[in-house]
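Changelog excerpt

This revision adds worked examples to the README so contributors can see how folded entries look when concatenated. The first example is reproduced verbatim below.
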Amino acid sequence: MKRAGILNRHLAGALAELGHGDGVLICDVGMPIPAGPRVVDLAFRAGVPSFAEVLDGLLDELVVEGATAADEVREANPETASLLAARLPDLAHVPHDELKALSAGARLVVRTGEARPYANVLLRCGVFF
């Protein structure tokens, strides 16, 4: 058994398969899950695990070269907007409907237990060299 890092075997395996440019959608329980991408559903109950916990865990494991969130997060969920701005300084914003359309191209969807609006972000994988 691993001592540290991501212990969920489904998530650890999915992360190992990602390549440069692949998309990873981290989403709340309300985000429609697109057909096609691999889905790792971590939701246990409302708020568990939190969006922040999952985002921080994935940022420890991934190289991210870009990220996109919904415009609406800034007004509807300022706490998550601040978290995203702090963790992802080059964050792009698009209308929520556009984020949903972009998420269909993601290679991996990680569903959190977050139950606050617009706690979603699409990460674009980079390379470590």
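The second example, added in the same revision:
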Amino acid sequence: MQVLKTELSVEPIRADFVSFLQVGSQILHIEFQTVGDRDMPLRMLDYYVRLYRLHRCPIQQIVIFLQETNSPLLRLDRFETNSTLHSYRAVRLWEEDPTLMLNDATLLPFAVLARSPQPEEMLRTIAQKIEQIELSKERANIATYAYMLGGLRYSKEILSQLLREEIMRESVTYQALLAKGIKQGLQQGELDLALRQLRRKFGELPDRLVKKIKALSLKRLEAFGEALLDFQSLDDVTVWLSPKTQTKKSAPKDIG
């Protein structure tokens, strides 16, 4: 199996996740969606035509809906006009029998969202099966994916209770998510502190300034937090946030 990288990437991706895989002599086009899209049938036809033009081989298209809703858009599985008919497979994961998924470790994350009269008991079964996986990295990755998808159905408390954090720590995906979460937390903390100090010093802030401050990176927020101690008025804040000031501060020093 080979992941295809084609000029289809110039098309803006409107799916939650889209993948083009070459499996043997055919191409497997998979899209994951959490919500319905009335333009999905036309987009699937568009993908099919461009993939076929490039590869001239059979193409299987599957749209997998992850989150249960009653929207009729999730029932769409074809594009049809008076002269054209193109169909694809639409899978609503919550309607699928979980038996096959429970017997294949790589499919366990999808079983989290599959049909079940007792979802919490299903999650417990999945957690037990994950713990039985021998390879630690595979176990960690599958637990992480199950946790991520599980957020569409279960509460954070139940997920944390059954899919233990220590199992996921070896997963590079979990580590990346954790690092991103820490960075976002630090950035939000710096932002809240800066805005609180500014409001205490100058009162209510203009929306335009708040918007500019929220757009600062973590590094710039830290610098802003130090600089605001010297601000005497909102004009000083405006000057510090101006593009010219940012450019001047970031310019390399002449050491010649």
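Reviewer comment on example two: Residues 247-256 have pLDDT under 50 and may be disordered. The chain has twelve helices and seven strands.
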